[in-house]
Amino acid sequence: xxxxxxxxxxxxxxxxxxxxxxxxxxxxxxxxxxxxxxxxxxxxxxxxxxxxxxxxxxxxxxxxxxxxxxxxxxxxxxxxxxxxxxxxxxxxxxxxxxxxxxxxxxxxxxxxxxxxxxxxxxxxxxxxxxxxxxxxxxxxxxxxxxxxxxxxxxxxxxxxxxxxxxxxxxxxxxxxxxxxxxxxxxxxxxxxxxxxxxxxxxxxxxxxxxxxxxxxxxxxxxxxxxxxxxxxxxxxxxxxxxxxxxxxx
Length: 249
Known about the structure:
By secondary structure, the protein is α+β, with helices and mostly antiparallel strands. It has a four-stranded antiparallel β-sheet with strand order 4-1-10-11. Strand 2 and strand 3 form a beta hairpin. The protein is globular and about 50 Å long.
């Protein structure tokens, strides 16, 4: 008698692909109905709250394609100043926990007066920066980093490697190891990025033009009166402003 034929095993179904975890960032951003927000959103070519593209202004000496290229990164991240850099949630945490943590932190803080901003070079790009030092700003920014760090998952090794490859100081390496970002605490520098890297000729052309473009708001002191939660839904997606939390409310 011949041996019985073995029964075929059921075909193994491929595991369902897990959607990439979103990243979140805690930023300062002006109110979306403010002159700051409108001017900066048009300059960058995108409204980060509504998630819509906008026609950028005409800049003499720079064609439209070059302007899109020069603003590509700040357009994707949305108009902002970084308080806590983009991060993924620790395993098991939900977005609702982050929302509650942001609201709880904001309630404990008071508005921070920045004074006047101006357009100025920062390293090899252009950004809005405070005209005068604001010690309270640094304390506030690092308090935000610390208060929300329990929900931050460790950065992937490849992300850390990219940051290290940029050439960090020993202090910056220590901050990267402790907080997932090298530009916090004493390395923090408030800025609202307006361009990608620009060469000397581009900087010489854009700097006076941007000062004139933002003149109506540069003349008025600015106050950090809320923190903003931004989300990157998937790797490479545009960051969206999903909620603002008034300070002291």
